[in-house]
Every structure is written in C-alpha cells, then in structure tokens.
Structure of VOC domain-containing protein:
Amino acid sequence: MQVNGILESALYVADPAKSAAFYRRLFGFPILLESERLIALDVAGKNVLLLFRTGATVESFDTGDGAIPGHAGVPPTHFAFAISKEEVESWVEKLQAEGVTIESIVNWPRGATSIYFRDLDGNLAELITPGFWATY
C-alpha cells in the first residue's frame, strides 16, 4: 500500500475568477470545476490547483453525500510548478511579456534553476527544473 502523489494543491485567493484568469493566461490550465467557493484548474493532466475564495471554506461543506471539513489558509503561501531545463529562457520571456515581475532566478548547486514570481494575491510561485530534489 502506498500514496501515489499529491493530487490537489490549494491556494486561498481574494477572487477565484481573477486568479483563474491569471493562471490560465500564463499556463493555459483548463477549468475542471467552478463555483462561488472555488475554481479547480487542471495542471498538466495529472494535478489540480484549487483556488479557494479566502474565508469561504472555514465552515464544513455539505456535498449531499457527506461533508468536506472546514479549512482555511492565508496568503501568501508558496508552491512550485515543474518545468524542463530547456524552457527556462522561454518562461522568463513569457512572464516578462505578460507583465509578471520576476523576483528572483536561482541556479542551484545540483543543476536546477528556479524562477520566482508572485500571483495576484502575493503567493510566491516558482517554476523549477529537475535537479533540486532527488525525486525530480
């Protein structure tokens, strides 16, 4: 018996629609689910980025067939998307073309490169190439 990975990652945002538009503009993520509480985006066909409206998930949510326990988070948080080493410059150009400020680019000792920027809610987003973690 084993865990097969992380399926969902959650961000808490002021306006899920605006945040979804930001991530869709940069990455082209399709929308999987849209409601007043959240928007779920498909990341590379294998992960889900949940954009929860800040404060909208503090109370449990009755699905009609069980309840999702309440949860909350406060931006800014941090997360990273995996990219290939060959696409670092293309991503830098894309972010700049979209008016996204790159806060830092780090070249790690084992060969990975990270590009850091903020989303609309101040969450620290990272694009990282293989070579930092032993698993990627």
